[in-house]
Amino acid sequence: MMTTTSAREEATVSVTGTRTAPVRPARPRRPDRRRAASSLPYLLVAPAVLALGLALGYPLVRQVLLSFQEFGLAQQFGQPPEWVGLANYEQLFTDAYLWRVTLRTIVFCLVNAAATMVLGVGLALVMRAMSTPVRLLAQTGLLLAWAMPVVASLTVWQWLFDTQYGVINYLLTALGGDFEGHGWLLRPLSFYFVATVVVVWMSVPFVAFTVYAALMQVPDELVEAAEIDGAGRAQRLRHVIVPSIRPVLMVVGLLQVIWDLRVFAQIYILQKAGGSATDTNLLGTYIYRLGIGGGDFGTSAAVAIFMLALTVVLTAPYVWSMIRQERTEA
Amino acid sequence: MSRSTTRPARVGANLVGVVTFVVAAFPVYWMVNSSFLDRNEIRNPVPTWVPFGGDLDNFRTVFETDQFVNALRTSLMVTGLTIVVALAFAFVAAVAVSRFRFKGRMSFIVTLLVIQMIPVEGLFISQYKMLETMELLNTVLGLTIVYVAGVLPFTIWTLRGFVAGVPYELEEAAMMDGCTRMQAFLRITFPLLAPGLVATGVFGFIQAWNEFTLALVVMTREDQRTLPLWLSTFTDVNSGTDWGGIMAGSTLIAVPVIIFFLVVQGRMVSGLTAGAVKG
Predict the structure, then answer these.
(1) Could you state, in order of their start, the residue ranges of all structural domains in chain A?
(2) HSE-up of residue B82 (Cα within 13 Å, Cβ side)
(3) pTM for the full model?
Protein backbone atom coordinates (compact mmCIF):
# COMPACT_ATOMS: atom_id res chain seq x y z
CA MET A 1 0.00 0.00 0.00
CA MET A 2 1.15 3.46 -0.73
CA THR A 3 1.81 5.02 2.58
CA THR A 4 1.43 8.65 3.48
CA THR A 5 5.16 8.86 3.66
CA SER A 6 5.89 8.08 0.08
CA ALA A 7 3.11 10.33 -1.15
CA ARG A 8 4.55 13.16 0.83
CA GLU A 9 8.00 12.62 -0.45
CA GLU A 10 6.66 12.64 -3.94
CA ALA A 11 4.83 15.84 -3.45
CA THR A 12 7.50 18.18 -2.27
CA VAL A 13 6.81 21.78 -3.08
CA SER A 14 9.36 24.18 -4.37
CA VAL A 15 9.67 27.80 -3.54
CA THR A 16 10.00 28.92 -7.11
CA GLY A 17 6.38 28.04 -7.50
CA THR A 18 6.93 25.45 -10.15
CA ARG A 19 4.85 22.38 -9.84
CA THR A 20 7.45 19.74 -9.51
CA ALA A 21 7.08 16.25 -10.68
CA PRO A 22 6.96 13.53 -8.13
CA VAL A 23 10.25 12.16 -7.10
CA ARG A 24 10.37 8.91 -5.40
CA PRO A 25 13.73 8.49 -3.79
CA ALA A 26 14.59 5.13 -2.44
CA ARG A 27 12.91 4.79 0.88
CA PRO A 28 15.25 6.67 3.25
CA ARG A 29 16.73 4.43 5.86
CA ARG A 30 16.95 5.54 9.40
CA PRO A 31 19.83 7.95 9.64
CA ASP A 32 22.99 6.56 11.04
CA ARG A 33 23.12 6.76 14.73
CA ARG A 34 26.80 7.41 14.83
CA ARG A 35 27.56 10.41 16.91
CA ALA A 36 29.77 12.91 15.18
CA ALA A 37 31.85 14.65 17.74
CA SER A 38 33.59 16.66 15.06
CA SER A 39 32.40 19.82 13.42
CA LEU A 40 32.24 18.03 10.07
CA PRO A 41 28.44 17.91 9.74
CA TYR A 42 28.23 21.60 10.54
CA LEU A 43 30.77 22.37 7.88
CA LEU A 44 28.75 20.32 5.43
CA VAL A 45 25.46 22.12 6.03
CA ALA A 46 27.11 25.55 6.27
CA PRO A 47 26.94 26.47 2.56
CA ALA A 48 23.24 25.63 2.35
CA VAL A 49 22.47 27.44 5.59
CA LEU A 50 24.38 30.52 4.47
CA ALA A 51 22.71 30.56 1.05
CA LEU A 52 19.24 30.20 2.54
CA GLY A 53 19.99 32.77 5.20
CA LEU A 54 21.19 35.29 2.66
CA ALA A 55 18.47 34.86 0.07
CA LEU A 56 15.48 34.09 2.31
CA GLY A 57 16.25 34.71 5.98
CA TYR A 58 17.68 38.18 5.67
CA PRO A 59 14.94 39.42 3.31
CA LEU A 60 12.31 38.04 5.66
CA VAL A 61 13.69 40.02 8.60
CA ARG A 62 14.09 43.07 6.44
CA GLN A 63 10.54 42.72 5.18
CA VAL A 64 9.12 42.65 8.68
CA LEU A 65 11.05 45.85 9.45
CA LEU A 66 10.01 47.37 6.15
CA SER A 67 6.36 46.75 6.92
CA PHE A 68 6.68 49.07 9.94
CA GLN A 69 8.25 51.83 7.88
CA GLU A 70 7.11 54.52 5.55
CA PHE A 71 9.09 53.57 2.47
CA GLY A 72 7.83 55.27 -0.65
CA LEU A 73 9.26 57.20 -3.55
CA ALA A 74 11.04 59.74 -1.35
CA GLN A 75 12.99 56.92 0.30
CA GLN A 76 13.83 55.47 -3.09
CA PHE A 77 15.62 58.73 -3.74
CA GLY A 78 17.69 58.58 -0.61
CA GLN A 79 15.58 59.85 2.25
CA PRO A 80 15.87 57.68 5.33
CA PRO A 81 12.75 55.60 5.95
CA GLU A 82 10.50 56.72 8.74
CA TRP A 83 9.20 54.39 11.43
CA VAL A 84 5.45 54.45 11.39
CA GLY A 85 4.58 51.57 13.68
CA LEU A 86 1.45 49.76 12.59
CA ALA A 87 0.32 52.52 10.23
CA ASN A 88 0.85 50.43 7.09
CA TYR A 89 -1.19 47.58 8.52
CA GLU A 90 -3.84 49.93 9.79
CA GLN A 91 -4.13 51.54 6.40
CA LEU A 92 -4.38 48.13 4.73
CA PHE A 93 -6.84 46.50 7.03
CA THR A 94 -9.21 49.42 6.70
CA ASP A 95 -8.84 49.31 2.94
CA ALA A 96 -11.81 47.65 1.26
CA TYR A 97 -9.68 46.84 -1.77
CA LEU A 98 -7.29 44.59 0.17
CA TRP A 99 -10.21 42.59 1.47
CA ARG A 100 -11.64 42.30 -1.98
CA VAL A 101 -8.29 41.05 -3.31
CA THR A 102 -7.94 38.64 -0.38
CA LEU A 103 -11.40 37.26 -0.90
CA ARG A 104 -10.75 36.86 -4.63
CA THR A 105 -7.48 35.09 -3.91
CA ILE A 106 -9.11 32.64 -1.52
CA VAL A 107 -12.11 31.98 -3.78
CA PHE A 108 -9.89 31.58 -6.84
CA CYS A 109 -7.63 29.23 -4.92
CA LEU A 110 -10.45 27.06 -3.58
CA VAL A 111 -12.33 26.89 -6.88
CA ASN A 112 -9.19 25.91 -8.75
CA ALA A 113 -8.08 23.40 -6.14
CA ALA A 114 -11.55 21.83 -6.04
CA ALA A 115 -11.87 21.65 -9.83
CA THR A 116 -8.39 20.14 -10.11
CA MET A 117 -9.11 17.56 -7.43
CA VAL A 118 -12.49 16.53 -8.86
CA LEU A 119 -11.12 16.15 -12.39
CA GLY A 120 -7.83 14.55 -11.30
CA VAL A 121 -9.36 12.01 -8.92
CA GLY A 122 -12.18 11.31 -11.35
CA LEU A 123 -9.69 10.64 -14.11
CA ALA A 124 -7.60 8.40 -11.89
CA LEU A 125 -10.67 6.32 -11.09
CA VAL A 126 -11.78 6.09 -14.70
CA MET A 127 -8.23 5.23 -15.83
CA ARG A 128 -8.54 1.87 -14.09
CA ALA A 129 -11.37 0.89 -16.38
CA MET A 130 -9.66 1.95 -19.62
CA SER A 131 -8.11 -0.60 -21.89
CA THR A 132 -4.33 -0.45 -21.74
CA PRO A 133 -3.64 1.33 -25.07
CA VAL A 134 -6.22 4.02 -24.32
CA ARG A 135 -4.84 4.48 -20.83
CA LEU A 136 -1.33 4.94 -22.21
CA LEU A 137 -2.70 7.44 -24.71
CA ALA A 138 -4.43 9.44 -21.96
CA GLN A 139 -1.30 9.29 -19.80
CA THR A 140 0.86 10.53 -22.66
CA GLY A 141 -1.42 13.52 -23.11
CA LEU A 142 -1.36 14.26 -19.40
CA LEU A 143 2.41 13.97 -19.28
CA LEU A 144 2.74 16.51 -22.09
CA ALA A 145 0.47 18.99 -20.34
CA TRP A 146 2.39 18.44 -17.12
CA ALA A 147 5.77 19.03 -18.71
CA MET A 148 4.83 22.31 -20.43
CA PRO A 149 6.59 25.36 -18.98
CA VAL A 150 4.15 27.77 -17.33
CA VAL A 151 4.89 30.70 -19.60
CA ALA A 152 4.66 28.58 -22.75
CA SER A 153 1.30 27.19 -21.57
CA LEU A 154 0.06 30.69 -20.98
CA THR A 155 1.02 31.91 -24.43
CA VAL A 156 -0.62 28.90 -26.09
CA TRP A 157 -3.83 29.31 -24.14
CA GLN A 158 -3.85 33.02 -24.96
CA TRP A 159 -3.54 32.07 -28.58
CA LEU A 160 -6.33 29.49 -28.25
CA PHE A 161 -8.57 32.11 -26.61
CA ASP A 162 -7.49 34.89 -29.00
CA THR A 163 -10.28 37.31 -29.82
CA GLN A 164 -9.79 37.39 -33.57
CA TYR A 165 -8.10 34.19 -34.68
CA GLY A 166 -8.47 31.91 -31.68
CA VAL A 167 -9.52 28.30 -32.20
CA ILE A 168 -11.92 28.40 -29.27
CA ASN A 169 -13.96 31.26 -30.70
CA TYR A 170 -13.92 29.49 -34.07
CA LEU A 171 -15.18 26.21 -32.63
CA LEU A 172 -17.85 27.82 -30.45
CA THR A 173 -19.08 29.84 -33.41
CA ALA A 174 -19.13 26.72 -35.57
CA LEU A 175 -21.22 25.03 -32.90
CA GLY A 176 -23.77 27.80 -33.21
CA GLY A 177 -22.64 30.23 -30.52
CA ASP A 178 -22.13 33.93 -31.02
CA PHE A 179 -18.43 34.05 -30.30
CA GLU A 180 -17.05 35.88 -33.29
CA GLY A 181 -14.55 38.42 -31.98
CA HIS A 182 -15.40 37.54 -28.37
CA GLY A 183 -12.85 39.04 -25.96
CA TRP A 184 -12.32 36.53 -23.19
CA LEU A 185 -10.11 38.64 -20.96
CA LEU A 186 -12.15 41.83 -20.86
CA ARG A 187 -14.55 41.02 -18.05
CA PRO A 188 -13.21 39.85 -14.66
CA LEU A 189 -15.35 36.75 -14.41
CA SER A 190 -14.44 35.62 -17.90
CA PHE A 191 -10.79 36.52 -17.17
CA TYR A 192 -10.82 34.23 -14.13
CA PHE A 193 -12.47 31.54 -16.20
CA VAL A 194 -9.56 31.57 -18.65
CA ALA A 195 -7.05 31.62 -15.77
CA THR A 196 -8.87 28.67 -14.19
CA VAL A 197 -8.80 26.70 -17.43
CA VAL A 198 -5.03 27.20 -17.68
CA VAL A 199 -4.34 26.43 -14.02
CA VAL A 200 -6.55 23.34 -13.97
CA TRP A 201 -5.15 22.10 -17.28
CA MET A 202 -1.61 22.18 -15.92
CA SER A 203 -2.46 20.85 -12.45
CA VAL A 204 -4.71 17.89 -13.21
CA PRO A 205 -1.89 15.60 -14.46
CA PHE A 206 -0.08 15.64 -11.12
CA VAL A 207 -3.26 14.74 -9.23
CA ALA A 208 -4.31 12.10 -11.75
CA PHE A 209 -0.91 10.37 -11.74
CA THR A 210 -0.43 10.47 -7.99
CA VAL A 211 -3.93 9.27 -7.16
CA TYR A 212 -3.77 6.59 -9.86
CA ALA A 213 -0.52 5.32 -8.34
CA ALA A 214 -2.23 5.21 -4.96
CA LEU A 215 -5.23 3.37 -6.38
CA MET A 216 -2.94 0.72 -7.84
CA GLN A 217 -1.72 0.01 -4.31
CA VAL A 218 -5.18 -0.77 -2.98
CA PRO A 219 -5.11 -4.55 -2.56
CA ASP A 220 -7.35 -6.37 -5.02
CA GLU A 221 -8.42 -8.82 -2.33
CA LEU A 222 -9.90 -5.99 -0.32
CA VAL A 223 -12.06 -4.83 -3.19
CA GLU A 224 -12.99 -8.38 -4.15
CA ALA A 225 -13.96 -9.22 -0.60
CA ALA A 226 -16.26 -6.25 -0.53
CA GLU A 227 -17.72 -7.33 -3.85
CA ILE A 228 -18.36 -10.83 -2.58
CA ASP A 229 -20.03 -9.32 0.47
CA GLY A 230 -22.45 -7.70 -1.93
CA ALA A 231 -21.10 -4.16 -2.03
CA GLY A 232 -22.07 -2.33 -5.21
CA ARG A 233 -19.75 -0.12 -7.25
CA ALA A 234 -20.57 3.06 -5.31
CA GLN A 235 -20.32 1.29 -1.97
CA ARG A 236 -16.93 -0.23 -2.82
CA LEU A 237 -15.71 3.20 -3.80
CA ARG A 238 -17.00 4.87 -0.69
CA HIS A 239 -16.20 2.29 1.94
CA VAL A 240 -13.13 0.54 0.60
CA ILE A 241 -11.26 2.53 -2.01
CA VAL A 242 -11.54 6.08 -0.73
CA PRO A 243 -10.57 5.22 2.86
CA SER A 244 -7.50 3.35 1.58
CA ILE A 245 -6.20 6.33 -0.35
CA ARG A 246 -7.38 9.03 2.05
CA PRO A 247 -3.85 10.08 3.17
CA VAL A 248 -2.80 10.61 -0.44
CA LEU A 249 -5.95 12.56 -1.19
CA MET A 250 -5.36 14.82 1.79
CA VAL A 251 -1.78 15.62 0.85
CA VAL A 252 -2.51 16.17 -2.81
CA GLY A 253 -5.50 18.39 -1.97
CA LEU A 254 -3.48 20.49 0.41
CA LEU A 255 -0.71 20.90 -2.13
CA GLN A 256 -3.25 22.14 -4.65
CA VAL A 257 -4.40 24.76 -2.16
CA ILE A 258 -0.82 25.90 -1.57
CA TRP A 259 -0.02 25.99 -5.27
CA ASP A 260 -3.21 27.78 -6.25
CA LEU A 261 -2.55 30.50 -3.69
CA ARG A 262 0.50 31.48 -5.68
CA VAL A 263 -0.54 31.89 -9.26
CA PHE A 264 1.45 35.03 -9.94
CA ALA A 265 2.72 34.23 -13.42
CA GLN A 266 -0.68 33.12 -14.70
CA ILE A 267 -2.54 36.21 -13.49
CA TYR A 268 0.21 38.68 -14.34
CA ILE A 269 0.67 37.48 -17.90
CA LEU A 270 -3.07 37.36 -18.60
CA GLN A 271 -3.44 40.86 -17.17
CA LYS A 272 -0.83 42.12 -19.57
CA ALA A 273 -2.66 40.44 -22.41
CA GLY A 274 -5.72 42.55 -21.85
CA GLY A 275 -7.25 42.09 -18.42
CA SER A 276 -7.86 45.09 -16.20
CA ALA A 277 -5.30 44.79 -13.41
CA THR A 278 -7.39 46.53 -10.76
CA ASP A 279 -10.36 44.27 -11.33
CA THR A 280 -8.37 41.06 -11.52
CA ASN A 281 -5.51 41.44 -9.02
CA LEU A 282 -4.88 38.58 -6.64
CA LEU A 283 -2.59 38.99 -3.63
CA GLY A 284 0.61 38.19 -5.52
CA THR A 285 0.08 40.66 -8.36
CA TYR A 286 -1.23 43.24 -5.88
CA ILE A 287 2.01 43.09 -3.89
CA TYR A 288 4.03 43.40 -7.07
CA ARG A 289 2.07 46.37 -8.37
CA LEU A 290 2.13 48.17 -5.02
CA GLY A 291 5.85 47.73 -4.45
CA ILE A 292 7.86 47.23 -7.59
CA GLY A 293 5.28 48.86 -9.84
CA GLY A 294 4.20 51.70 -7.55
CA GLY A 295 7.26 52.21 -5.36
CA ASP A 296 5.34 51.92 -2.09
CA PHE A 297 7.56 49.32 -0.47
CA GLY A 298 6.31 49.81 3.08
CA THR A 299 2.69 48.99 2.28
CA SER A 300 3.53 46.18 -0.11
CA ALA A 301 5.77 44.61 2.54
CA ALA A 302 2.80 44.67 4.90
CA VAL A 303 0.60 42.92 2.32
CA ALA A 304 3.38 40.37 1.76
CA ILE A 305 3.55 39.65 5.49
CA PHE A 306 -0.21 39.23 5.44
CA MET A 307 0.09 36.76 2.57
CA LEU A 308 2.78 34.81 4.44
CA ALA A 309 0.50 34.65 7.48
CA LEU A 310 -2.34 33.39 5.32
CA THR A 311 -0.07 30.68 3.92
CA VAL A 312 1.02 29.65 7.38
CA VAL A 313 -2.59 29.31 8.51
CA LEU A 314 -3.50 27.24 5.47
CA THR A 315 -0.48 24.96 5.55
CA ALA A 316 0.05 24.52 9.28
CA PRO A 317 -1.73 21.14 9.45
CA TYR A 318 0.40 19.74 6.63
CA VAL A 319 3.67 20.99 8.09
CA TRP A 320 2.73 19.65 11.51
CA SER A 321 2.01 16.17 10.26
CA MET A 322 5.28 16.18 8.30
CA ILE A 323 7.24 17.21 11.37
CA ARG A 324 5.58 14.58 13.47
CA GLN A 325 6.43 11.94 10.93
CA GLU A 326 10.02 13.17 10.72
CA ARG A 327 10.28 12.91 14.52
CA THR A 328 9.04 9.36 14.65
CA GLU A 329 11.52 8.35 11.96
CA ALA A 330 14.52 10.00 13.52
CA MET B 1 -10.23 -4.62 -10.68
CA SER B 2 -10.49 -4.76 -14.42
CA ARG B 3 -12.20 -8.13 -14.12
CA SER B 4 -15.32 -6.50 -12.80
CA THR B 5 -15.38 -3.90 -15.56
CA THR B 6 -18.40 -4.40 -17.76
CA ARG B 7 -18.33 -3.77 -21.50
CA PRO B 8 -20.33 -0.51 -21.51
CA ALA B 9 -18.24 0.75 -18.62
CA ARG B 10 -15.06 0.05 -20.56
CA VAL B 11 -16.35 1.80 -23.66
CA GLY B 12 -17.30 4.82 -21.56
CA ALA B 13 -13.93 4.84 -19.83
CA ASN B 14 -12.11 4.62 -23.14
CA LEU B 15 -14.13 7.52 -24.43
CA VAL B 16 -13.06 9.56 -21.41
CA GLY B 17 -9.49 8.49 -22.08
CA VAL B 18 -9.56 9.72 -25.67
CA VAL B 19 -11.17 13.03 -24.65
CA THR B 20 -8.50 13.42 -21.95
CA PHE B 21 -5.76 12.88 -24.48
CA VAL B 22 -7.24 15.45 -26.85
CA VAL B 23 -7.82 18.12 -24.20
CA ALA B 24 -4.45 17.59 -22.53
CA ALA B 25 -2.34 17.31 -25.65
CA PHE B 26 -4.12 19.69 -28.02
CA PRO B 27 -2.59 22.93 -26.68
CA VAL B 28 0.88 21.39 -26.98
CA TYR B 29 0.09 20.24 -30.50
CA TRP B 30 -1.35 23.63 -31.36
CA MET B 31 1.80 25.37 -30.17
CA VAL B 32 3.98 23.24 -32.45
CA ASN B 33 1.49 23.41 -35.32
CA SER B 34 1.20 27.20 -35.25
CA SER B 35 4.94 27.61 -35.10
CA PHE B 36 5.17 26.27 -38.66
CA LEU B 37 2.43 28.48 -40.12
CA ASP B 38 2.97 31.75 -41.94
CA ARG B 39 1.12 34.98 -41.27
CA ASN B 40 -1.67 34.35 -43.77
CA GLU B 41 -2.49 30.94 -42.38
CA ILE B 42 -2.41 32.28 -38.81
CA ARG B 43 -4.75 35.10 -39.77
CA ASN B 44 -7.14 32.91 -41.68
CA PRO B 45 -10.54 32.82 -39.94
CA VAL B 46 -10.59 29.08 -40.60
CA PRO B 47 -7.80 27.46 -38.56
CA THR B 48 -5.13 25.43 -40.31
CA TRP B 49 -5.25 22.16 -38.40
CA VAL B 50 -2.20 20.47 -39.86
CA PRO B 51 0.92 22.39 -40.95
CA PHE B 52 1.15 20.99 -44.52
CA GLY B 53 3.22 23.45 -46.46
CA GLY B 54 4.51 25.00 -43.25
CA ASP B 55 8.08 26.13 -42.96
CA LEU B 56 10.70 27.16 -40.45
CA ASP B 57 10.42 30.89 -41.12
CA ASN B 58 9.07 31.63 -37.64
CA PHE B 59 12.03 29.89 -36.05
CA ARG B 60 14.41 31.75 -38.32
CA THR B 61 12.81 35.05 -37.33
CA VAL B 62 13.12 34.19 -33.64
CA PHE B 63 16.80 33.29 -33.94
CA GLU B 64 17.46 36.47 -35.86
CA THR B 65 16.18 38.74 -33.10
CA ASP B 66 18.85 39.97 -30.71
CA GLN B 67 16.46 39.76 -27.80
CA PHE B 68 16.04 36.02 -28.15
CA VAL B 69 19.73 35.30 -28.43
CA ASN B 70 20.37 37.59 -25.47
CA ALA B 71 17.65 35.96 -23.40
CA LEU B 72 18.91 32.52 -24.33
CA ARG B 73 22.38 33.43 -23.12
CA THR B 74 21.07 34.87 -19.84
CA SER B 75 18.82 31.86 -19.26
CA LEU B 76 21.63 29.41 -19.92
CA MET B 77 23.99 31.24 -17.57
CA VAL B 78 21.49 31.57 -14.73
CA THR B 79 20.25 28.00 -15.10
CA GLY B 80 23.74 26.52 -15.33
CA LEU B 81 25.07 28.46 -12.38
CA THR B 82 21.99 27.64 -10.30
CA ILE B 83 22.31 23.91 -10.97
CA VAL B 84 26.04 23.77 -10.19
CA VAL B 85 25.82 25.79 -6.98
CA ALA B 86 22.59 24.19 -5.76
CA LEU B 87 23.85 20.65 -6.43
CA ALA B 88 27.16 21.26 -4.66
CA PHE B 89 25.55 22.86 -1.61
CA ALA B 90 22.70 20.38 -1.49
CA PHE B 91 24.94 17.37 -1.88
CA VAL B 92 27.15 18.11 1.13
CA ALA B 93 24.12 19.10 3.19
CA ALA B 94 22.31 15.89 2.24
CA VAL B 95 25.35 13.84 3.29
CA ALA B 96 25.46 15.63 6.63
CA VAL B 97 21.77 15.10 7.26
CA SER B 98 21.62 11.43 6.32
CA ARG B 99 25.05 10.20 7.48
CA PHE B 100 25.51 12.13 10.73
CA ARG B 101 23.54 12.86 13.81
CA PHE B 102 24.22 16.33 15.11
CA LYS B 103 22.60 18.95 17.21
CA GLY B 104 20.30 21.11 15.12
CA ARG B 105 19.81 18.42 12.48
CA MET B 106 16.11 18.25 13.18
CA SER B 107 15.66 22.03 13.09
CA PHE B 108 17.49 22.12 9.79
CA ILE B 109 15.16 19.54 8.27
CA VAL B 110 12.08 21.28 9.61
CA THR B 111 13.32 24.62 8.27
CA LEU B 112 13.72 23.09 4.83
CA LEU B 113 10.14 21.90 4.99
CA VAL B 114 8.75 25.21 6.11
CA ILE B 115 10.70 27.13 3.48
CA GLN B 116 9.07 25.08 0.78
CA MET B 117 5.69 26.42 1.81
CA ILE B 118 6.71 30.06 1.37
CA PRO B 119 5.16 31.62 -1.70
CA VAL B 120 7.67 33.66 -3.73
CA GLU B 121 5.19 36.50 -3.79
CA GLY B 122 5.48 36.76 -0.03
CA LEU B 123 9.16 37.60 -0.14
CA PHE B 124 10.09 39.11 -3.47
CA ILE B 125 9.64 42.70 -2.32
CA SER B 126 12.43 42.50 0.21
CA GLN B 127 14.55 40.26 -2.03
CA TYR B 128 14.31 43.05 -4.57
CA LYS B 129 15.33 45.62 -1.96
CA MET B 130 18.24 43.46 -0.84
CA LEU B 131 19.58 42.93 -4.35
CA GLU B 132 19.13 46.62 -5.00
CA THR B 133 21.31 47.45 -2.01
CA MET B 134 23.90 44.90 -3.10
CA GLU B 135 23.76 46.36 -6.60
CA LEU B 136 22.89 42.96 -7.97
CA LEU B 137 19.63 43.80 -9.71
CA ASN B 138 19.80 42.93 -13.40
CA THR B 139 22.74 40.61 -12.91
CA VAL B 140 23.06 36.89 -13.45
CA LEU B 141 24.59 36.59 -9.99
CA GLY B 142 21.64 38.33 -8.33
CA LEU B 143 19.05 36.10 -9.96
CA THR B 144 21.18 33.04 -9.25
CA ILE B 145 21.27 33.87 -5.53
CA VAL B 146 17.50 33.82 -5.23
CA TYR B 147 17.17 30.80 -7.53
CA VAL B 148 19.66 28.74 -5.53
CA ALA B 149 17.67 29.43 -2.38
CA GLY B 150 14.51 28.46 -4.22
CA VAL B 151 15.87 25.15 -5.49
CA LEU B 152 17.99 24.15 -2.47
CA PRO B 153 15.35 22.86 -0.04
CA PHE B 154 13.80 20.56 -2.61
CA THR B 155 17.21 19.39 -3.82
CA ILE B 156 18.51 18.63 -0.33
CA TRP B 157 15.26 16.88 0.52
CA THR B 158 15.47 14.66 -2.54
CA LEU B 159 19.20 13.96 -2.37
CA ARG B 160 18.83 13.04 1.27
CA GLY B 161 16.63 10.17 0.14
CA PHE B 162 19.23 9.08 -2.39
CA VAL B 163 22.12 9.19 0.10
CA ALA B 164 20.10 7.31 2.67
CA GLY B 165 19.31 4.76 -0.03
CA VAL B 166 22.96 3.76 -0.32
CA PRO B 167 23.56 1.33 2.52
CA TYR B 168 26.21 2.46 4.93
CA GLU B 169 27.36 -1.16 5.14
CA LEU B 170 28.87 -0.74 1.68
CA GLU B 171 31.15 2.00 2.98
CA GLU B 172 31.98 -0.02 6.07
CA ALA B 173 32.96 -2.97 3.95
CA ALA B 174 35.27 -0.75 1.92
CA MET B 175 36.82 0.62 5.07
CA MET B 176 37.45 -2.87 6.33
CA ASP B 177 39.22 -3.54 3.06
CA GLY B 178 41.57 -0.69 3.91
CA CYS B 179 39.95 2.43 2.48
CA THR B 180 39.91 5.58 4.56
CA ARG B 181 36.50 6.97 5.32
CA MET B 182 36.87 9.60 2.62
CA GLN B 183 38.03 7.07 0.06
CA ALA B 184 35.18 4.77 0.93
CA PHE B 185 32.73 7.56 0.42
CA LEU B 186 34.24 8.80 -2.83
CA ARG B 187 34.76 5.36 -4.37
CA ILE B 188 31.67 3.56 -3.18
CA THR B 189 28.87 5.91 -2.27
CA PHE B 190 29.50 8.76 -4.67
CA PRO B 191 29.24 6.70 -7.89
CA LEU B 192 26.01 5.18 -6.63
CA LEU B 193 24.64 8.68 -6.18
CA ALA B 194 25.25 9.70 -9.78
CA PRO B 195 21.68 8.96 -10.92
CA GLY B 196 20.36 10.95 -7.99
CA LEU B 197 22.54 13.90 -8.85
CA VAL B 198 21.47 13.73 -12.48
CA ALA B 199 17.81 13.57 -11.57
CA THR B 200 17.89 16.42 -9.07
CA GLY B 201 20.04 18.41 -11.48
CA VAL B 202 17.40 18.01 -14.15
CA PHE B 203 14.73 19.16 -11.74
CA GLY B 204 16.82 22.20 -10.93
CA PHE B 205 17.15 22.85 -14.62
CA ILE B 206 13.41 22.66 -15.21
CA GLN B 207 12.68 25.02 -12.35
CA ALA B 208 15.28 27.66 -13.15
CA TRP B 209 14.58 27.47 -16.87
CA ASN B 210 10.82 27.97 -16.40
CA GLU B 211 10.86 30.44 -13.55
CA PHE B 212 9.01 33.67 -14.27
CA THR B 213 8.12 35.62 -11.13
CA LEU B 214 11.56 36.21 -9.62
CA ALA B 215 13.04 36.86 -13.03
CA LEU B 216 10.44 39.57 -13.55
CA VAL B 217 11.35 41.12 -10.21
CA VAL B 218 15.13 40.93 -10.50
CA MET B 219 15.69 41.46 -14.21
CA THR B 220 14.01 44.78 -14.86
CA ARG B 221 16.20 45.80 -17.76
CA GLU B 222 15.27 44.65 -21.22
CA ASP B 223 18.75 43.43 -22.10
CA GLN B 224 18.86 41.16 -19.04
CA ARG B 225 15.65 39.24 -19.69
CA THR B 226 15.53 35.49 -19.35
CA LEU B 227 13.63 33.40 -21.90
CA PRO B 228 10.29 33.26 -20.06
CA LEU B 229 10.39 37.05 -19.65
CA TRP B 230 11.23 37.52 -23.30
CA LEU B 231 8.33 35.26 -24.24
CA SER B 232 5.88 37.13 -22.02
CA THR B 233 6.76 40.50 -23.55
CA PHE B 234 6.27 39.08 -27.00
CA THR B 235 2.49 39.25 -26.57
CA ASP B 236 2.68 42.79 -25.23
CA VAL B 237 2.67 44.39 -28.61
CA ASN B 238 -0.80 45.81 -29.12
CA SER B 239 -0.81 45.98 -32.86
CA GLY B 240 -1.13 42.55 -34.38
CA THR B 241 0.52 39.96 -32.17
CA ASP B 242 2.86 37.70 -34.14
CA TRP B 243 1.38 34.42 -32.99
CA GLY B 244 3.51 32.34 -35.31
CA GLY B 245 6.66 33.83 -33.80
CA ILE B 246 5.40 33.44 -30.24
CA MET B 247 4.55 29.81 -30.82
CA ALA B 248 7.97 29.20 -32.34
CA GLY B 249 9.52 30.82 -29.24
CA SER B 250 7.31 28.79 -26.92
CA THR B 251 8.22 25.60 -28.75
CA LEU B 252 11.92 26.37 -28.44
CA ILE B 253 11.57 26.93 -24.70
CA ALA B 254 9.28 23.98 -24.09
CA VAL B 255 11.02 21.25 -26.07
CA PRO B 256 14.11 20.85 -23.85
CA VAL B 257 11.91 20.89 -20.77
CA ILE B 258 9.53 18.27 -22.10
CA ILE B 259 12.43 16.01 -23.11
CA PHE B 260 14.15 16.35 -19.75
CA PHE B 261 10.88 15.86 -17.95
CA LEU B 262 10.19 12.59 -19.73
CA VAL B 263 13.73 11.40 -19.00
CA VAL B 264 13.48 12.05 -15.27
CA GLN B 265 10.00 10.62 -14.98
CA GLY B 266 11.31 7.21 -15.89
CA ARG B 267 14.65 7.33 -14.22
CA MET B 268 13.60 8.54 -10.80
CA VAL B 269 11.54 5.45 -10.20
CA SER B 270 14.15 2.86 -11.07
CA GLY B 271 16.01 1.34 -8.18
CA LEU B 272 19.23 3.10 -7.39
CA THR B 273 21.29 0.50 -5.75
CA ALA B 274 19.87 -2.28 -7.84
CA GLY B 275 22.67 -4.80 -8.15
CA ALA B 276 24.83 -3.25 -5.47
CA VAL B 277 23.49 -5.42 -2.70
CA LYS B 278 22.39 -8.83 -3.85
CA GLY B 279 19.71 -10.70 -2.04
Answers:
(1) 4-12+64-76+83-329
(2) 32
(3) 0.86
